[in-house]
From TrEMBL:
It comes from Nonomuraea mangrovi. Transmembrane segments: none annotated. Residues 2-343 form the Enoyl reductase (ER) domain. This is NAD(P)-dependent alcohol dehydrogenase. Keywords: Metal-binding, Oxidoreductase, Zinc. Gene3D superfamilies: Medium-chain alcohol dehydrogenases, catalytic domain (3.90.180.10), NAD(P)-binding Rossmann-like Domain (3.40.50.720). The keyword Lipid metabolism does not apply. Belongs to the zinc-containing alcohol dehydrogenase family. It comes from the Bacteria. Its cofactor is Zn(2+).
Amino acid sequence: MRAFQLVEWQRPPELREVPVPEPGPGQVLVKVGGAGACHSDLHIMEAPAPAPGEGTRLPFTLGHENAGWVETPGPGVAGFAPGDPVIVYGPWGCGLCANCREGKENYCQRTGGLGGGLGGHDGGMAEYLLVPASRFLIPLGTLDPREAAPLSDAGLTSYHAVKRSLHLLGPGSTAVVIGAGALGQMAIQMLQALSAATTVVTVDTAAGKLEIAKRMGADEALLSGDQAVTRIMDMTRQQGAQLVLDMVGIDPTLRMAAQVARVLGHLTIVGLGGGALPVNFSSPPHECSVASPYWGSIPELMEVITLAQQQKIKMLVEHFPLERVGEAYQFLHDGKIQGRAVITP
Ligand code: NAD
Ligand code: ZN
Ligand code: ZN
């Protein structure tokens, strides 16, 4: 089969011919329907080689946002049959540590929550994906894997980031989403679905993204800059927003996040832009908590799938065949993807 593999650090990945994996006991072979091209993959492609000793195995197949159909359940797998549409929970934990037993395999105490397409494990930018345990598969019901794939990361990560702050989002509250790309667009819809009384403001550098964000339910969509800060402060009577989600994570967005967050609020860094948040006694505001959530839990993915089945959330998807995967990432890099590029092998 063909697979889009990172072969060397800081070199463009390559489409290569590799064997179709055989599922062992408890494992499941999935025929990939859709594999989302996440901005994190661009960070991986640009990353320098890890220090010796903490190395990630190369080559490995990219793609950590996957859905498809069960192809072959391995020996001992119950509850799944060939042809079942499934979404793949991405962070593959050990299943046995305290966090994994709560379904929070993103915070596995042994594996660190890396999975297919990350940390040297083969991912879904290929015709087939070997999933190491059937507990990582969630049935999709009537949802199409080619449309649903981004729910496993763009959807789940945004959902987790919103849900952990829901107690702050009462009537009259404000949430700011910085970066209205795939994750930001999901977060806007999640905020509307889970907290209809919250005013949702989004900020982006691209006017086109602001248009899409408005269609997806943002109450205000502002071009990045000082005027955006002034507008948000005016809207909140100079108090700032209860929740600020930074889906970019570079120095300027983190600075803006601190300027528009409120006392006792939440400033949540989701973007892996590599910026630093300056912290002193009065900035971020007093008792504003800062968190950097990574992905989400298995039960949360089930909730995300339910929201999609209820048609409360929908990812704006552009499909690319596997032979155009390199082009899809170039478009993502150039800001030309409106929502999420999904590879359909
Ligand atoms: P994307 O490319 O679809 O969206 C990024 C958006 O940010 C774009 O709309 C872009 O115009 C906007 N942007 C860029 N610079 C900006 C600025 N200075 N101010 C305002 N907006 C700006 O990316 P994505 O796939 O949605 O991913 C977003 C980030 O989240 C990436 O850094 C990715 O690595 C990270 N991520 C983190 C997790 C996690 O678990 N924490 C999971 C998935 C993705
Ligand atoms: Zn991702
Ligand atoms: Zn674990």
